[in-house]
Write a structure and sequence with these properties.
alpha/beta; homohexamer; 8 strands
Chain lengths: 248, 248, 248, 248, 248, 248
């Protein structure tokens, strides 16, 4: 039985990240600072948005897609829209997980980010998180008829992001991504502001920046975003782990 | 207010690790493979052993200290013995935490490892874990009379190791350290075998190697040891995180 | 209101066990040692397999069914295959739970085993676990039109098994089944090896035996398998409880 | 390395149980029905009471000890009083754990019961639980000077009981002991009523019987008491497990 | 961005409560005492029952609906029946959540009660709880075509009730509602007894009254029912919080 | 047996609150906004500070006490200092719990606030929280010699506050106190700024205001502080509960 291949060298410039969002603004609000940080570090980022936000209180679907495309460009990411059941109508279906697994096989990312599984949030969020997690498994299985045209693919790691503070899991230890560089914060802010139909109605921008600032204050940096790894991280030396997040 | 200094560069050769053990064999059995991996990678490792194992069923205190020194040498680590309350007599006292904080200030390690806080294990184990955690805080506070002769010191990260499987915390997400290189396993095995007074009485060696092999099988490597970070890890890019531990 | 009937006498030879598996090899890998132990003790064991493994990377459906039949024979169990949504396509549907409840009414087992509910594993596993748990309730309800041809049936206990280590629940206290007798281990090993299409591709056999050995070392026996009871166990005397699993 | 000896045969008449209580009435209120059931089944039960209840609002120490002796006699148990730090003054000290370990070595029980570790209850309760758990380990270690006059002893299992409903652990799966026989309930009730200084001031008797009745209604028996095993139970066949506790 | 309007004044006579039940007797058994207390305090209560209990072992659908109407009248509540998938057939569908959201918009309640999300109970119970929670979100979103004819509505709070003791969540801190007034208990008892087809077959009435009495004994009142808030409560002064539930 | 007396009427002007802090600034930083809100609402607030902060990196004990007195005056609260073991030296001792219980009996508060029990924070914080919780029990017991000169006293409720975000318990559902009134925030800010020796060295003020703003954004108010009740709250009507904290 072959072991898994050796891990990519650290800071591999070819690393590619795939972000899934249930609505046109979820990725930007939940972890846009990370998209900005990774593309700035030379990694490739692609966003897959699974509805056009047609159930929202503000903004037409067309406008929201335009906003999302603009935001993706600001973040240095590519973007695509797919249809599942429609905004606020998402259901757990094997066909959806297979569809997402097909995307994973086509794009072959190293790292995948999806909304967290906490159920006390918008139902599309946690259901998409479940479907993505299932999809990362299905993408590996060789016998799936629907996925036959792509080679099977095993990602390196799945991380969950929280669109809002309530969506942060309480039973998983987070990792924090340091997004303190002024250019990263500024890019993130601009990308969030591109969702003008939403930010003009609610204080999303302040919510997210306050959240990142609070984490930054805890961690002794300017701003940080918490992610929740689906599986334990593997290190070759604890020197990789660097320092933990406790200032006070 | 000054921010914390920039993190050490990855794989900083000057990284130093400090391991605390309640008994002469706890470090070797619980995370000896990590000591071997880190010293092999060029990092400095120092072991602080807080009793002479005088309550154990097998081996005199003198013999156990000799075994511990031999094991440390095999692992490429330095070792010292300190007295707290004696084997199986450890109590939570402020004086103990201050004593350990003094050691932290004197040695100024980047990374500290201590036994886990799970209470359903040998009482010296979890109490030492609590004392070390408290000590990592006290080492930072400027006004402590007892610590005045050393400069205050903030470590980078505290990890907990589990001496036995029961001691693995269930509410913390572990990180796994890959110790698959044959030389590392062989060094670890020899270091454990140096505790002959113990290994001749119970299957400690098989217990620990079976544990590391099971984790390795889960993670797609040969052998691995789980550690439990006391605080969230901070990353500058998710590319640092490499892959997660899920093979099956 | 009539109370439940008196419990079966201990070691009742008529006890019958029903095992549910999502794929042709799940039961053997996850708890085959328990099937072997129970049939050796004179109890009846029946396996219900809910797909033909057609999504797997290795082995045709026909081959996998043949392997499963061979494994069941080795374990001294009977086996049947049922169709739900197909491998890697299982969804939570009331019709599935009713179908499983019909099987429970037809076979009237005392004890039922199903895959655990931990969601970070193959989606068919935890969904089947959920469906079986729901089915054990539906089997009791008198008014279900679809189940009218069988008498209602209340099982004695539902246990969950974990196909892989990641599938072990962290919030339920396990019970351990001692499978140390050499004949039991040998039977289990042979039954797992019957799934040659799988074991030739991945180290499943080593994974499971290492897992059982680690539990055995913890418990002071040769090998053990952990099960997770869905409901509290009832004892008439603590002398029934025998000893707990802590050696180190 | 010798394996542990074979388990006692089921319902071994020689099984002996040791109950620890922090105050003269804790055992009776928290699990007196189990004492009654076990002595009725022919097992030996001994109660160790670690204060004279001198901090309570009602009853002199002398009266409370008299009540405890009367209650023990009603339950068919022997009883002894030991001093630790006094009622409402208990502290975690190594000397206390060693003292309790000495009692374990002297009496050599199979099964030990202690108050649960839930910290939101009378501080003597959870501290005694911690000390007893530590003591069950210390009783096994060969090198403890203070315990030299007794042979080391390994108990079979430690169970926690909850003196009040708030003290029931939420993170451990309980086992239920069926105490439905009218003679058992009647004996328990009489033993509780022997603590007249307490029952005349507060509705302890109703509290405990209501608790046992609620568990009984859930489990499909008349009355039951929940215990919380410190370590997983080991079974040789699932037929030992009998049925689970779910009626509604 | 407009803030939410000021909270209703305390004890607002116009407060209206909406209770969802999966079967004709779930509300009465699980929290009928609260319905009685609230209508007695002058609040409006409406019950929405989502099946006719056609899968139950006892009572025809027609009889059960008659019983439910009688019970609602006794409790001073209005009642309506809706169809989802039928008793024991409930599935998680976006269409169901939208249907429930439509009811929320039509009735515009302040406070909503639904069965708890604990999965180890009748599958209709926890699925209805999930659907109601999702519905409370959907009711707020402006763009949902299916809900266009009603104005969007944000409830004040969602509470979960537990139909049986097993359904009480262990990870949420409950709030207790004091239902000690004799008229409330008497009304509740009569309303439960109205479900004669059920109470003649099983000890539901004793189960619920025992449960409420045990909580009352813990809290220092006669009877109480536990509810589990979906979101943190907001206070303007801690004096609102009154006292906590600890007598023993 | 007498039941507890009827609860105080809502918004009882005589309500008195007692706050415990381990260091001179803990109460102000952790929940000073609540002190301000309660005194503004006409309730009495008293602060008990259990060290002079002599281990801190900044500020002499004398200066820190002066700052604490100034801050208390700003908050409209009275203040006293007591000695336990000294800053960074606190140990769990029965004598300490009794001393705190004596204070409870002397001052007879309705509501008590203490630092949370989360152990991964300054050791004085969680130990003081444990001692206060134990003290609230001891204050009720009639037979304690050390407390004889005061009448026994039962508080209404104990709440925990978190000095820093890490100290927020993850297993308790918080209640939120709305401190949005501009005068409250301004008073709180001034009181925190009075601890100039601390705020000039670290961004405590920004940390706490950011934390309160984030909670406010989540809850739909300007600012809020989370508290963690030690025991379930009791309500007489759900109308008391008002609305929950979910805006996004």
């Amino acid at each position: 039985m072959p072991m898994k291949p050796a891990p990519r060298s650290l800071l591999d410039p070819a690393a590619s990240l795939l972000f899934f969002g249930a609505h046109p603004d979820d990725i930007e609000f939940g972890c846009g600072g990370i998209v900005a940080a990774e593309t700035r570090a030379g990694h490739r980022a692609h966003l897959v948005i699974c509805s056009r936000g047609e159930a929202g209180s503000h903004g037409t679907p067309a406008r929201r897609c335009t906003e999302a495309k603009k935001a993706a460009a600001i973040l240095g990411a590519t973007v695509e829209f797919i249809g599942l059941d429609g905004d606020a109508h998402l259901e757990i279906r094997a066909a959806h997980a297979l569809k997402l697994a097909g995307i994973l096989r086509r794009l072959r990312p190293n790292i995948v980010l999806a909304p967290s599984l906490v159920e006390n949030q918008h139902p599309d969020h946690y259901r998409l998180g479940q479907l993505v997690r299932d999809a990362t498994r299905l993408a590996r299985y060789g016998g799936l008829r629907e996925l036959r045209r792509w080679q099977s693919h095993a990602i390196d790691q799945l991380f969950f992001y929280a669109v809002t503070p309530e969506a942060e899991p309480r039973d998983l230890t987070p990792v924090l991504v340091n997004i303190s560089e002024p250019e990263i914060i500024s890019t993130w802010r601009t990308a969030m502001a591109a969702h003008e139909s939403q930010t003009s109605a609610r204080r999303y921008l302040e919510l997210q920046l306050t959240r990142a600032r609070l984490l930054g204050l805890r961690a002794g940096v300017e701003h940080a975003i918490a992610l929740f790894p689906n599986d334990p991280l593997i290190f070759h030396s604890l020197a990789q782990a660097q320092r933990g997040a406790r200032l006070f």
